[in-house]
Amino acid sequence: MANQMGEASEGRAAGKGKPLNSIKHKQSKPVKAWIKNELNQQQKRFKKILQHMEDISPKREKWFQQFFDTISTRGQNIDGDTRMVIAKEDLPKKPRRKTKVTYEPKDLKGFDH
Questions:
Q1: Is this prediction's pTM over 0.70?
Q2: Left if phi > 0, otherwise alpha if psi is -120 to 50, otherwise beta: which for 17?
Q3: Which region, left, alpha or beta, applies to residue 88 given φ > 0 means left and ψ of -120 to 50 means alpha?
Q4: What is the Rg, in whole angstroms, of the alpha carbon atoms belonging to the chain?
Q5: Measuring CA to CA, how many Å separate 108 from each of 12, 24, 35, 79, 105?
Q6: Terminal CA-to-CA distance of the chain, rounded, Å?
Q7: Across the strands, what pairs with 84?
Q8: Is the dihedral of CA 75, 78, 79, 80 positive or negative?
Q9: 13 burial type by CB count under 10 A (0-12 exposed, 13-18 middle, 19+ buried)
Q10: Most buried of the four, 26, 27, 38, 43, by CB within 10 Å?
Q11: H or E, element range at 70
C-alpha cells in the first residue's frame, strides 16, 4: 500500500509527485471553448448558491440555536439509547466571522486549464 510520502504500492512504479495540472497535453480549440464555457456556468451557479446561503443566514442561526438547545436539554446520543446532556458552558461560542460556505469564486481564479 502506498504511504503519504509518495511511495508506490508494491509492484507499482513510483510517481513523480507532480500536481495534476502539470501534465502536458494538447487541447483543441473546441475543447478549450467548452472548458471555458463550463467554468463560466459553474461560477454563475456557485454565485447563486453563495447568495442563497447569505439569504438563509438568519434561518441558519435559528437552526444552530435549536441544535444547542436540544443537546443541552435532551442531550446527544452517545451509544444506543444512552444520551449525554451537554452543559451550557461546554457549548461552543459563536464565532465573530460569518458562517463559511465551502466554495468561493476566488478558488478558481488562476486555475490553469
A1: no
A2: left
A3: alpha
A4: 23
A5: 33, 20, 13, 42, 6
A6: 31
A7: 76
A8: positive
A9: exposed
A10: 43
A11: helix 57-73
- Strand boundaries in the chain, DSSP class E: 76-79, 82-84
Instruction: Answer yes or no: is pLDDT of 66 > 90.
Output: yes
CB atoms inside a 10 Å sphere around CB 46: 16
Residue 95 cell numbers, joined = 464565532
Encode burial over 48-70: b for 16+ CB neighbours within 10 A, e otherwise.
eeeeebeeeeeeeeeeeeeeeee
- Residue 47: the pLDDT is 86
CA distance 37 to 43: 10
Q: Which residues contact 35 (CB under 8 A, 6 or more apart)?
A: 27, 113
Q: Are 86 and 109 in contact (CB under 8 A)?
A: no
